[in-house]
Amino acid sequence: MRSLLLALLASTSLMTPVLSTSAQAAQPADPVAAADTEARTPLAELGKNDPYKWMEEIEGARAMDWAKAQNAATLPKLQGDPRYAGLEAQALAILNAKDRVPGVSFAGDGFLRNFWQDADHVRGLWRKTALESYRTADPQWETILDIDALSKAENANWVFKGAQCLPPHDTRCLVTLSNGGKDAVTIREFDTAAKAFVPGGFDLPEGKQNVTWLDQDTLLVAREWEPGQVTKSSYPYVVKSWKRGTPLASATEVYRGTPDDVSAGPSVIRDSDGVVQAVLAYRAVSFFESETYLLTDQGAAKLPFPLKSSIQGYVSGQLVLSLEQDWAEKGFKTGDLISFDLKALKAEPAKAQATLVLRPTARQSVEQVTTTRGRLIVGLLDNVTGVAHAYSHGAKGWTHQKFDLPANSTISLGSTSEKDERLFVSVTGYLAPTTYWLADAGSLKLEQVKASPARFDASTHVVEQFEATSTDGTKIPYFVVRPKAVKYDGQAPTLLYAYGGFQVSMTPAYSGVMGKLWLERGGTYVVANIRGGGEFGPAWHDAALKANRQKAYDDFYAVSQDLIDRKITSPRHLGIMGGSNGGLLMGVALTQRPELYNAVVVQVPLFDMIRYSQIGAGASWVGEYGDPAIPSERAVIARYDPYSNLKAGQHYPEVFIETSTKDDRVHPAHARKAAARLEELGYPVLYYENIDGGHAASANLAETARRQALEYVYLSKKLMD
Fold it and tell me: Binning pLDDT at 50, 70 and 90, where does residue 693 land?
């Protein structure tokens, strides 16, 4: 469940300089106990005098008129720059390049599948090819579903959000479509053999929903069954079984959470032949805590897992979990990977014994877990670079071997085969285009099947890793991608990026657009691995939760100051960028340490942290930030809340704020309010609201290229001119 929710957010933060170390001191000795006894503030009281609450009506006429007026004022300033047209054309050429390497996934019908977008297919093609063809320089593709043609036929702005196919043959699929990029989606049954939606097949109307196959004629569905039947986070909490050929209204309830949960949903555990081994339901009681239930004919039986744990896979009869908390009574620690014999677990849950698969070191983190037919594949971060191991389970427990993949890179585990031990693995770095490998987890054989073309001249830059010392003495690693010939005189135009939340790790990755539009033009790029992320496991994340949130921001300032102290750059030439939770980070940095920066790109941000739990999917994130309705937790939040900490008479740089009208996750009101409040205080502000695009702020490649060109024009004006 945690991995599903993590996929639903991107992060940012804001701060006030004089309070950089005081957040903990404001908390009572036992904040959990205090929160349990405190009287909750009525939600209607939070921000009740906010003059911009009307901006929370996403598509209200007044809010839309305001957004369009802001676009009309901002776009000419940026698009009128003589560099804009060239940057947009370069970005679009990279995004639409015909020689991009298509990532693929194994399908049970023997083909490899891929989703592809380019200039001729803006919304995209879902297509397939054979492995033999994929190995060639010019694979022969067969279209399964044309999203552009579908959008035209149905007069809709469809965004393809993936397809869930029924094993073992994977020919019946649940295709997920979003109108304009929203998290609310429609789901339709599709036949890949017939290349058509199934007449009279499963068809779920738009909503935030979680669906999985039980068998060919049965779905398990969590959705808003009755008006308002969603959690405070706007996700479903009632799971039903829906039989083919019956009305959706006739679906039978199999599990129910509560409106106070984050969400509830179904999960089906299958073996490599597609045979169901267990039917589960999860109940997410917070963003990071969930209960798991075994669904049987006798009802739902709670499984004895820690609240902070995540099911990672099933292989060789073993159900594999990762732990995000200590399980002291069982002898396990935070970050451990453990397994249960599934048959024993189902027979007597309370007596089932777990086995240790892997215990990471202090500088390691389990980043990815997947399974082939008979192997458990684990991707590790070791001091923020990747390694991969193949684990086997036998009479003597778990044994493992390491893949001999390129060092000092980010290693991503891709699609795996259920028929044998093969999987795809990608390897990338800041200056190294992605290579795609076909690996065999049994023999450890590696075959490089594809290599992405270079999109910029990387010969002029070098990658280095440094450490900064945060206010509490913690060493914070960060990567610098800089020109080889840079003079340490503080003049290098530098873009610093960070996220710092939700246990999301920032690892080396190749970006053709960033490289072309920034590095190739002499820019320096920096990524900070601040606390709140997952670079060193759950403990790195937990260190910046709730009352300790300021630590993430202090880490960010420490990296900023270290760049200045090393004379790589200076405040005049230092810009920062972050999105979602990272957008919050930008807002905090703006309000707490504006003297450090000359450019701030605030992407799809959280910003109003006093009301965040009431708009968008904000209620699901109280496990990360705290609950504004609890006075002691609100007192901590108020110290860094960017919205309420914006003040007149400060030396704020002119910021560039971006959002999307269709973002039903991090509500566009956050960005709108930030811009409106800055303007009210007399500060210049640039604001761009994409009318479509969802949380990615762009619904297709053309919109993505426009957004990126706007960002790099802004950064060029502020840091290079």
Answer: low
Q: Is the pLDDT of residue 566 over 80?
A: yes
Closest CA to 269 of 292, 236, 241, 299: 292
Indicate whether 29 pLDDT > 60.
Answer: no
Beta strand 11-12 pairing with 196-197: unpaired
Residue 704's identity, in one-letter code, is: T
- Which of 452, 620, 695, 698 is the catalytic position? 695
Q: What is the DSSP letter of 68?
A: H
- pLDDT tens digits along 308-331: 999 999 999 999 999 999 999 999
- Residue 351 has a pLDDT of 93
* CATH class of this structure's domain 2-25+61-91+455-720: alpha beta
- Cβ contact 359:376 at 8 Å: no
Q: Which of 452, 580, 620, 644 is catalytic?
A: 580
Cβ-contact 116, 127 below 8 angstroms:
yes
C-beta of residue 78 within 8 angstroms of C-beta of residue 85: no
HSE toward the beta carbon, residue 594, CA cutoff 13 A: 17
* Whole-number Cα distances in Å, 422 to 127, 275, 388, 418, 691: 21, 20, 14, 8, 42
Per the structure block, which two tokens stand in for 570?
């200076």
How many Å apart are CA 380 and CA 366, to the nearest integer? Answer: 5
Lookup result for tokens 């959000």: 161
Name the average pLDDT for the chain: 92
Is 393 considered catalytic here?
no
Where do the structural domains in the chain lie, given as residue ranges? Answer: 2-25+61-91+455-720
Task: For residue 256, list its beta bridge partners.
Answer: 238
695 is catalytic: yes
- 29: exposed, middle or buried (C-beta count within 10 Å: 0-12, 13-18, 19+)? exposed
Task: Judge residue 266's burial from the number of C-beta atoms within 10 Å of its C-beta, 0-12 exposed, 13-18 middle, 19 or more buried.
Answer: buried
pLDDT in tens, 623-665: 999 999 999 999 999 999 999 999 999 999 999 999 999 877 8
CA angle 62, 65, 66 (to 5 degrees): 85
Q: Which helix (H) or strand (E) holds 607?
A: none
**What's the whole-number mean pLDDT along residues 63-85?**
97
**139, two tokens:** 């694979």
> The tokens of 612 are what?
């965040």
